[in-house]
């Protein structure tokens, strides 16, 4: 079992930055695909970013160039650095871990993921 706890959310102005953290316990994250998803009120949960076990990353087009996913295996923590925030980035952000990926080697579907955190709220004001 893997337990994931997100932190770092909050209220930020448009154009600002936030860094989300996802701390894991129970298992080392180095062998997992790690992902960030988000869900706004009344909308489906959507993919944001993923990191393969080796650290190669992939992003949703809506955040590419603004968000960066990274992992610190020594701290068993995954991060999401969010820059140039927009009001449309407002959502609850969830960290997740997957043992395998089905989308051509990329874990971009929520159904790929075995473990989820409870989420952290990000609100971007205009």
Kindly summarize this structure in a few lines:
Helix content is 0%, strand content 48%.
| Helical coverage, percent range | under 10%
Structural class: mainly beta
Strand tally: 11
Using the alpha-carbon principal axes, give the shape: globular
User: How does the major sheet shape up?
Assistant: 7 strands, mixed
Radius of gyration: 13 Å
Strand fraction band?
over 45%
Which segments are poorly predicted (pLDDT under 50) over 5 or more consecutive residues? Answer: none
What is the N-to-C succession of helices and strands?
Answer: EEEEEEEEEEE
End-to-end separation in angstroms reads: 40 Å
Structure, described:
With about 130 residues, this protein is mainly beta. Helix content is about 0%, strand content about 50%. Strands 2, 4, 5, 6, 9, 10 and 11 form a 7-stranded mixed beta sheet that branches. A hairpin with a 5-residue loop joins strand 5 (about 45-50) and strand 6 (about 55-60). The mean pLDDT is about 95.
Keywords:
126 residues, mainly beta, 7-stranded mixed β-sheet, 4-stranded antiparallel β-sheet, 11 strands, 48% strand, globular
What secondary-structure arrangement, pairings included, does this model have?
Layout: E1 3-7, E2 10-13, E3 18-25, E4 33-39, E5 46-51, E6 57-59, E7 67-72, E8 77-82, E9 91-98, E10 115-116, E11 120-125
Parallel strand pairs: 2-11
Antiparallel strand pairs: 1-3, 3-8, 4-5, 4-9, 5-6, 7-8, 9-10, 9-11
